[in-house]
Amino acid sequence: MPATPALRRALAVLLALPLLTLAACGYGSQAKDDDTVRVAAGAKKIDGLDSVRIGYFGNLTHGTALVGNRKGFFQRELGATEARYAVFNAGPSEIEALNSGSLDIGWIGPSPAINGYTKANGENLRIIGGSASGGVKLVVNPDRVKSLADVEGKRIATPQLGNTQDVAFLNWAAEQGWRIDAQSGKGEVTVVRSDNKVTPGAFRSGAIDGAWVPEPTASMLVAQGGRVLLDETSLWPDEEFVITNVVVRQEFLEEHPKVVEAVLRASVETNAWINAHPDEAKAVANEQLEADSGKALPAEVLDPAWKSIRFTDDPLAATLDAQAEHAVRAGLLDRPDLAGIYDLTPLNKVLEAQGAPAVDDAGLGAE
Questions:
Q1: Prediction pTM value
Q2: CA-CA distance, 307 to 303, in Å (whole number)?
Q3: Mainly localized where (predicted)?
């Protein structure tokens, strides 16, 4: 989605201004102490707000946030309102930060977004945009699992009970006719809930036979000799499904709509830049991963992982509704009322200004 001529001129003027440096920090952040946020001298705070707290995971599926942070897209749109970043390891901790008011806006998977929305009775969160599709695979030990049928009786890891990949695997296993107790993970396939940081070691040691995981963990397992048995993309109509959303606290949206719009504008600009410069964007995302965690991804992991993710502004709302149904069938979620989970008005305003088509909320928009 190319920027409009007016937007390009504005950015050019902004980038030409002298810069001052502000220290970056935030709840849960794992960034290095010398990371900085660059703000144009003379820029003004939006609505007088000092800062906005933005959360994301150290996953390539959160590439919009990684690149938007590293390249300064968010900070440029926010002017002198400081973008403060927080890096999380899992959805529940990010939802907790949003619910407690210590985080304002976050990049997060669909299952945590659904759980956060329903547990607060629809009163705390809104999904305001899309970010990424795809990037999830079932990777197995080829010596132990040679076909899809061979998954029966094996130990398969997912990142966390009830997380997006856990729900997807349980749904797929049920479609194969295998019975699994969702809570314990015991059954005709054993589901091992394993942090993505731990899974490569468990795979290498033989403690698990495979894993249904997001990138870059999937490609890490392949680099260790694993084989991609199934790409989740193949299971969805049009081969697309939401893996990362943008969410906001409802109170923050109501009190600071211009700040939210600025963050969404930066998100749209970032996705456009990523799609126009995929190789450079891949390198930039890896730089931010290194800044956040102290370790960059090797090329044999980074290259295939990045290739499997599609960055999009569309939240793919119909697929989120389907994912909620999968969680209900797995016994992990009571049938949720998702009416009002989306507010795509600010995003569609940004898209209209850039001459791009509006995105749809699948009938789940706020009134």
A1: 0.85
A2: 6
A3: membrane
